[in-house]
Amino acid sequence: MKLFPERFYDSFFVNEYGKIESLRASRYNTCFSIVLMSVEGGGKGRLADESAGRQVMHRLASRVVESVRNCDVVGLVDERRIIVILPEADHFGSLMTVRKLSRAVEPISDGTPFSVILTQATFPRDGRGFGELVGTAASRAKLQKESLWERLRLRDKLFWEVMGTLTASAPSGYNDSTFEAGGDRPLTEFFIEQLDELIVKEISRTPQKRGILYFSSKKISQRLPLVKNLNAAGAFSTRVFLVGEPEENAWEIKTATPLIIDDQRLRETFFTFYLNEGTGYALICKENWGATYACFHTADAHLVEGLITKFQSEYSLQETLG
Asked: Which of 72-77's residues contact partners 24+ apart within 8 Å by CB, and which partners?
């Protein structure tokens, strides 16, 4: 362990500390989270050269320790996985840590091909014990590798490149699908409004759940169907942002925060991004000729979180997820 930094612990210590943290959170009815970093090499599932693999792990360990809070505990799960235990961190706090660690480990390279998958789990919603939390985070790592975000390497693209890739591709599966609406298509443009209405119903059905919703439109107005539905939803914990150019009454909207962005691309492509503690949904629609729309939607929370991250970063918005 000499090559590892201070405050980086072995698997025995991490496991014992995790058990103690689980007991503490259970006794005092609080939460805590873990972040699991799984390291693979060159698409082979393992780093082929063990010496190079150890060097990669040492560098990653240093970056992780430098990036987390002093109260967080960092160490090994096994030879190719690093864990961070985050006391008093909820679901969204752990997602922000994942975002921070993603940026911290990105520049590490000496020619050794490797990839890093970062996943999280939160007590008690993802498991009642430390072992359960690790198991949940490990399962999410497997699912994450199947996400379009990873398979199409969307993290390496700019926000509008990602949007173009998704609307131009034709994925069809359990979580992702493309469709056309408007014109003489079987689905009218009102179907898009119905999808947004379903999101508002979800927000009002579980008003205590924290979340974030971005909705873009050519014009931000009190007359938007989404705003009318939000006004009827009552009190809720989701933070709602309306993106686009304002009409005169835009600042009178009480249920959402206008984000004034003057960008021609927002007049041709509009989107809905919704993420809460249990689910994610994104709808992207690009306007074509003849009042038709090429659309993509997904229930892949990892992809949705990636879209929100790109959008916030490239438009210099507040980094928040709930």
From this structure: 73/9, 73/14, 73/17, 74/7, 74/8, 74/9, 75/8, 75/9, 75/10, 75/11, 75/13, 75/14, 76/8, 76/9, 76/10, 76/11, 76/14, 77/11, 77/14, 77/36, 77/134
